[in-house]
Write the structure tokens for this entry.
Amino acid sequence: MNRLDLTGLTTRPAQVWGGVRLVPLVREAPVEGLRLHREVYEGLGAGLVELGPRNHYVSYIPHGLVADWSSGEESGVPGSGRQSAAYGTQLGGGQDAPRTVRLPRPAHHRMAKRRPGDRLRFLPLHLALEGYLALHFGGPSTAWEEWSRRALRDGLSPRAEDAYLGWSVRGLGDALRIFEIHPDQCGVMVYVSDALAAAFVVPHPEDYRLLHASLMEDLYGELVHQYALYGAPVAEFGARLGDGSHIRTLADLRAAARGQERAWEEAHEALFARELLDSSYGFDRVYRMGSFTLWRFLPPFVRDGSGQHIGETITDHKGRVAYLKTFRLSDAQIRRGYLLHVLAGADWELSRAAEVLGSSREELVRRIRAAGFSELLKGNV
């Protein structure tokens, strides 16, 4: 598997609010045998994620998702499980809310943790972001003279990347609040200034209704924030039926409207979503859940000017997407990923890597420093 398969999902005409374009994704039938629930955490969202006995990082973690693939024999609904309520306490404001709060100690979370029964709790988007942060994390595997002792001992530790909350993406909150949710909607593609900011898919319409507002608590890249802040309003979707001379009955009008919907769907897949659907990815399996599998994926980090996304997905036994959440990388993040790929492919030897890049060794050193990896190099290089 090297591509995202959105078979079973169809698009509906775009909903536009200023520079934000929402493209609803609907399913003809829900994915059987899988449901998603939200687990809300106490505190202000600060959390410490444990990757292993000695590896961890601190980040914003407002909630987790619980995948339930239980048989649902008690309720007669596949994948419904016996418990579907969210756990924890949801943050809220009001007249009685304190104006100052004491910051709690960061909660400890594991990236993915099995729960009683056929249930798995995982941290949305953190699977994808940790996969990007861990890209060639070990650093040089050979003690070339250019690399510092710290690089050979600790690799790229620590690494940090910036992201913005959905609350800070101008227009996103209004768009999510104003537009109605389709009866069979199971996902949405979010565009800012007609650049794909994120894709979100769940297995069941009820799951989407519960998780729709959680898009405001997701993380978005720097480019998305800038496009929302400085971008101009985008053109709205408009159905064009010509002069109407061929429309004489309601059946003719219905057929013409459906033709416009098909035209929009084809245009969306060919133009808007092409960078996500036509790209090849490297998939890393995180957990197998019966007939479903949780993956995280990374793009090829090619320098062709197109947008590239990291993300996580749950697929069925045929590889079709049941759950999907993506994060658009900035140009700087793509450059860093590309540079790390080249260095690792050259076994971290600067001369070989410079040859692959078609540049001089001095220029490669400059690019390494500009990418924020100067601590890997000795000071006299």
In short: Confidence is low (pLDDT under 50) at residues 72-78, 80-106. The radius of gyration is 23 Å. The CA atoms of residues 94 and 100 lie 13 Å apart.
